[in-house]
Design goal:
CATH architecture of one domain in chain A: Orthogonal Bundle
Largest sheet of chain A: none
Distance between the termini of chain B: 52 Å
Strand order of the largest sheet of chain B: 6-7-8-3-9-10
Largest interface: A-B, 31 and 40 residues
CATH superfamily of one domain in chain A: MetI-like
Helix content of chain B: 10-25%
Number of strands of chain B: 18
Number of strands of chain A: 0
Order of helices and strands of chain B: EEEHEEEHHHEHEHEEHHEEEEEEEE
Shape of chain A: globular
Distance between the termini of chain A: 37 Å
Strand content of chain B: 35-45%
Number of helices of chain B: 8
Shape of chain B: elongated
Number of helices of chain A: 27
CATH class of the largest domain in chain B: Alpha Beta
CATH architecture of the largest domain in chain B: 3-Layer(aba) Sandwich
Largest sheet of chain B: 6 strands, mixed
Strand content of chain A: under 5%
CATH topology of the largest domain in chain B: Rossmann fold
Number of domains of chain B: 2
Oligomer: heterodimer
Structural class of chain A: mainly alpha
CATH superfamily of the largest domain in chain B: P-loop containing nucleotide triphosphate hydrolases
Helix content of chain A: 55-70%
Structural class of chain B: alpha+beta
Order of helices and strands of chain A: HHHHHHHHHHHHHHHHHHHHHHHHHHH
């Protein structure tokens, strides 16, 4: 039989070896260090101590309420919005733009804005509640703060649920939709009996993704919990609790043990996500079936019958309320950033724009210049490194059907960043790179590489194989075929992936917070690696109190806008690239 | 890397065999596509692999190309075993079903690319590509991208790209399936001309039996993982080897029915069956051999399909239905009783009672 050519085998592996080596050094190694340091004396004393803490059950409870609550409501609301957009023939783009607006606001900025919204006295929600005859709520008081955190989580993650569910709904074949129209199905009939059952996989994926995101989220509970010190027990999650243990209380083993418990908990939705993603089964005639996972069997949906007319109005009314929920914080952020500071601290709060100034916003931009340069440079470097590592790896996974490798990569993606941060910090400090740009350039691809491998492998799967086969018959070597044939074909996907990587790197908060101490000193090699996110969080020249919500609001809103603008611009560009789609015309049909 | 077969077949030495498949077995998981398949393709002929979808014809082509590896058996090109060779080292040219023109390259760069990767000097490659384009009448499209030329032109570019490296075997996978009916006729004729002009051994995959019969020197009818018959188009049409081939070839296809023969008479349809002894048989009757008007048989017209030049008439005799082609069906009506005769000798395909 055919004898495999050694050079061919090597040149195939060369595609994914760099990514795997990177993930071992900056993923597996920090994780291993974290495990080791969580129980250094090879007993499990630190784990035992955690379970003995009186507030630990409460923190576990908080973590579950926040994560599951965020996921459930994000998916329900996201599905309503997805149905709205999918069912409309006009204004689709405008409606989906509003629906994913919060996606363009980095978590750090979202949390800062919600901190001002929740402020007792100066916050804008109270007068609105009073006006419609509802009682005033002490949003950040104990008893309510966990729910306020969850509401912020829902606001920030519902676009993700919306986008995934919409993708599921729009992938319903056009003929099915047309047949339902011909058969006289109403809106509810169509969605309950056709579209939603067909989009079950997408909805489950949305649920798991938002839940994993919330379980591992650092930014929201950290900032709403006061952005420093020990977070209040009433709203601390495993992430913020372990962060405080490791970096404020000096209880490193205990903090690491907490992150390991969290990693174990997240493994459940993480492995489910792996199964849902790989279980779909590819129709590639055997070559890809080296590794076969049984597909997940969803329970069939038996939805009750609803009248179609009222259902339509229900969707419209709920969507309108959700749009107010989505838009108001963004409006408020703009209002705060461009008005005189004196107007912020007035009772009752002023909700309408009365006087617009840009001087404070511009001052903040000037103050943040080193951070803006640092973040831009790091994000560009992280993006380049990510594409260089992930694009060839994704290609191999797609073409050689390496499902096991893809499964591991999706699993790595689901592990919270807090589980890696101490190990990464340890490695970087051993390399004497703390507070340099290298610290972040080397460590941040840990989050972007798995995600880009995952999405790009889907993209390569959608490319017709015949181009590469033609190249093979023409005598191209695998490397030459990849660079000269595949890469140009994959350009739209690569650009979109690069934008996503840039956005990821741009808005990371935890790693800069741990690895950086000062703003860039304007010298080379660069020292000082504070980012815009850390600037926004620790910016506190003359705050009125110890927590972020007492920071100077105008500067806080201004830094939120600085954080959001590049993401908005890139999202819009990325979307238009994705819409342009694949090249056409090289293959017929 | 070259491997030699365990035994060499002396009959291929110096013969006119271009491509030989010997004992090819291929499985996808539990599905066996072929089991011990053998085939010989002569030098310079246009050879078609025809069969319904799922018959494995494309897989066989891809095994010859080296894009799929057989589980056992050998592929010989010009008497040389190519089993261990990667596609570029087999010196084949291939046109893909979707053409797979590189969309980011211009037409000239597409045609040149097999030479460029062989490190042929750019100026030389360019000159050869221009000549090839001229021969295939696509000289005016050279500077354009594949998306900017017509489907017929795209197809010629694909032919040019496959031919420029002067392959030993030219492989085509349903190259006309996406062209519309008008273009298909001219493309077919063009391919035949190109094949003659270059004198190149061509293996052609199609599911369209009329296309295969019209352009091929020889045809292999494939189905159910095996080759049912190999022969010239005339042999296949006039003497199908079994019921599968009989049902597959011809438009409308052969009427395949069961008859009882006793003492020289057949039931339910009376026909001439010279030299057939008594018993039960499966026989094939050509639709054009069934003439309506007079004869020894009586039937009811059950359906009429008007097809322009001719009309297909469905006749029912007892429980058996057969098709007839009639050039003037003006007076026939559904439900009418008619007399008919079987003029040509039917093909006896199988004995049923043994």
């Amino acid at each position: 039989m055919s004898v495999p050519n050694i050079r061919e085998i090597l040149s195939k592996r060369i595609f994914y070896i760099p990514a795997v080596v990177y993930l071992i050094i900056f993923g597996l190694l920090p994780f291993g260090i974290s495990i080791y340091l969580s129980a250094p004396s090879s007993d499990f004393a630190s784990y035992v101590r955690i379970f003995q803490l009186t507030n630990f059950p409460r923190i576990l409870y908080n973590t579950f309420v926040f994560s599951v609550g965020t996921a459930v409501f994000s998916v329900v609301i996201g599905t309503v919005l997805a149905i709205l957009v999918d069912s409309r023939t006009h204004a689709k783009r405008a409606l989906s733009l509003i629906s994913y607006l919060p996606y363009m606001i980095p978590f750090t900025a979202s949390a800062l804005i919600f901190a001002t919204l929740y402020n007792p006295g100066y916050g804008p929600i109270d007068p609105i509640l009073k006006a419609i005859g509802l009682p005033i709520i002490n949003w950040l008081g104990s008893g309510m703060d966990l729910y306020s955190l969850t509401i912020t989580g829902i606001w920030a993650t519902l676009p993700l649920a919306f986008l995934i569910t919409l993708a599921g709904l729009t992938s319903v074949p056009k003929q099915v939709k047309e047949a339902s129209v011909v058969d006289g199905m109403g809106m509810w009939d169509y969605y309950s009996s056709e579209a939603l059952p067909l989009a079950k996989g997408a909805i489950l994926t949305a649920f798991l993704m938002t839940m994993i995101l919330a379980f591992g989220d650092f930014d929201l509970p950290f900032i709403l919990g006061g952005a420093g010190g020990v977070p209040p027990t009433t709203m601390a999650t495993l992430v913020t609790f372990s962060y405080a243990q490791m970096f404020y209380e000096g209880l490193v083993s205990q903090g690491l043990a907490t992150t390991m418990i969290l990693a174990l908990i997240v493994s459940i939705p993480g492995l489910l996500l792996v199964r849902v993603t790989l279980g779909g089964g590819r129709k590639d005639g055997g070559a890809g079936r080296l590794f076969h996972l049984p597909s997940v069997h969803f329970p069939s949906l038996h939805l009750p019958h609803l009248p179609n007319g009222p259902f339509k109005y229900l969707i419209y009314v709920v969507s309108a309320l959700v749009f107010i929920f989505i838009l108001f914080p963004i409006y408020w952020m703009g209002l705060l950033a461009f008005r005189p500071q004196a107007l912020d601290y007035v009772i009752p709060p002023i909700l309408l724009p009365t006087k617009i100034i840009s001087s404070i916003f511009l001052t903040t931009v000037t103050q943040a210049t080193p951070e803006i340069i640092t973040t831009t440079a790091i994000a560009i470097a992280v993006t380049a490194l990510t594409i260089a590592l992930a694009a060839p790896a994704a290609y191999t996974i797609a073409r050689q059907g390496r499902r096991a490798l893809l499964g591991i990569i999706i699993y790595v993606f689901s592990i919270p960043s807090i589980a890696f941060v101490f190990g990464a910090f340890y490695i970087i400090s051993r390399l004497h790179l703390l507070n340099t740009w290298w610290a972040l350039i080397l460590t941040e691809p840990l989050f972007t590489v798995p995600f880009v491998i995952w999405t790009m492998s889907n993209f390569y799967n959608s490319l017709p194989k015949s181009y590469e086969e033609a190249a093979l018959v023409d005598g191209y070597s695998p490397l030459r075929s990849f660079f000269q044939i595949v890469m140009p074909l994959a350009r739209p996907g690569l650009i979109a992936a690069a934008m996503v990587a840039f956005i990821f790197a741009w808005h990371l908060l935890l790693f800069p917070l741990v690895m950086s101490q000062t703003p860039w000193n304007f010298h080379f090699p660069p020292v000082g690696s504070n980012t815009v996110t850390t600037f926004a969080v620790i910016f506190d020249p003359d705050s009125t109190g110890g927590s972020v919500s007492n920071n100077v609001w105008v500067q806080l809103a201004a830094s939120g806008i600085i954080l959001a603008v590049p993401v908005i611009v890139l999202s819009v560009i990325a979307q238009s690239y994705l819409l342009k789609g694949l090249y056409s015309g090289g293959t017929k049909g | 890397m070259r491997t030699t077969p365990f035994f060499s077949d002396s009959s291929t030495e110096g013969s006119e065999i271009s491509t030989k498949l010997e004992g090819i077995t291929k499985k996808f998981g539990r599905l066996t596509v072929f089991d011990n398949l053998n085939l010989e393709i002569s030098r310079g002929e246009l050879f078609s692999l025809v069969g319904p979808s799922g018959s494995g014809k494309t897989t066989l082509l891809r095994i010859i190309a080296g894009l799929e590896i057989q589980d056992s058996g050998h592929v010989y090109i010009n008497s040389k075993a190519v089993d261990g060779l990667s596609p570029p080292r087999r010196n084949i040219g291939m046109v893909f079903q979707d053409y797979a023109l590189y969309p980011n390259k211009t037409v000239i760069d597409n045609i040149m690319s097999p030479l460029i990767v062989k490190n042929v000097k750019r100026s030389v490659a360019r000159k050869e590509a221009e000549e090839m384009a001229e021969r295939l009448s696509i000289g005016e499209t050279l500077a354009r991208k594949p998306a900017q030329i017509s489907g017929g032109q795209q197809q010629r570019v694909a032919l040019a790209r496959a031919l420029i490296k002067k392959p030993d075997v030219f492989l085509l996978d349903e190259p006309f399936s996406n062209l519309d009916a008008q273009l298909r006729f001219s493309a077919r004729k063009f391919l035949k001309e190109v094949q003659r002009e270059f004198g190149i051994t061509t293996i052609y995959v199609t599911h369209d039996q009329s296309e295969a019969l019209s352009i091929s020197d020889r045809v292999a009818i494939m189905g159910g993982g095996r080759v049912h018959q190999v022969g010239t188009p005339r042999e296949i049409y006039e003497a199908p080897s079994d019921e599968f081939v009989a049902m597959f070839i011809g438009s409308p296809p052969l009427n395949v029915i069961s008859v009882q023969v006793k003492g020289g008479n057949s039931t339910p349809i009376t026909m001439k069956l010279p030299g057939v002894s008594d018993g039960a048989f499966r026989v094939g009757i050509r639709p054009e051999g069934v003439t309506i008007g007079r004869g020894n048989n009586e039937a009811t017209v059950t359906s009429l399909e008007y097809a322009g030049r001719e009309t297909i008439v469905y006749l029912k005799v007892a429980e058996t239905e057969i098709r007839s082609i009639v050039f003037d069906a003006g007076l026939l009506k559904v439900g009418q009783k008619v007399k008919f005769d079987v003029q040509q000798s039917p093909l006896v395909l199988a004995r049923e009672d043994s």
